[in-house]
Amino acid sequence: MTLFSRERGKLSGVARGARKVANKFGARLDFFSRVAVMLHAGKSLDAITSVQTVASIWEALVDPDAFAAASYVAEVIDTLCEPDFAVEELYDALCAFQYALARGADRDALLAAMDLHLLDALGVGPELDACARCGAVLGRRPLKGGRARLSPQAGGLVCDACAAALRSGGITEEGATVLHVSAPDFARLRELRRMPLDEVGKESHPGRLHRITQAFVEQQMGRRSRALAVGAAGSRVKRAAGRRR
Ligand SMILES: [Zn+2]
User: Fold this and answer.
1) CA–CA dist 182, 44 (Å, integer)
2) pLDDT digit string (tens) for 170-182?
3) 159 alpha carbon, distance to own chain's centre
4) Phi, psi of 150 (to 5 degrees)
5) If pLDDT is split at 50, 70 and 90, which confidence band does 228 have?
6) CA–CA distance, 208 with 210 (Å, rounded to integer)
7) Which of the 8 DSSP states describes residue 205?
8) Distance 146 CA to ligand 1 centre (A)
9) pLDDT at 144
């Protein structure tokens, strides 16, 4: 099993017999459960010798969209974190995310906030206050045309001149993209970055914030998220089934 711990970051452990119905670990080692475990150091892998549930949100994860959101976050943490390297800030963010997901926080805002907290905890958060390419400070100036230009390849906000340079291929990064983000969405992203995850509300805002932050996460991963691709396919199947009824 892959565990993400406060003390040691990502680690692998063996839970012998955990798949058997009558196993002592039972459902306590279910996906996305928060547990206290005791580990016995082995030659290559640690063995899990006892498990206590701290928090489980399996009722919330029955919802396919919530499950897809949890799977996405687990996939990103698994991909971007080094084994045996504690990132306490990220562990705390994950606990708050688990709580907010169970409470029914707006999914788009919650995932966007989680992405930003996660990237910040790993020291690769996007620059949202100045141009990530030339350093020109945005300050409180209004955004030209009411839109912010963000580039995952450049590492955040880009000024007009740099956005134009990116578009015309003025820099060499392959497939550089510039995302055009409305002023309210941009303001909301900056707000979500500072907001504790368990304070993300249930009211949904028009706009697709997670699509923006996900581009920054996928830039770090070097690939698209598989969990969300599966989640999107699941939603399509559900919608198609709904239409047939
Ligand atoms: Zn610039």
Assistant:
1) 50
2) 554 455 678 999 9
3) 26
4) -120, 140
5) confident
6) 6
7) P
8) 17
9) 73
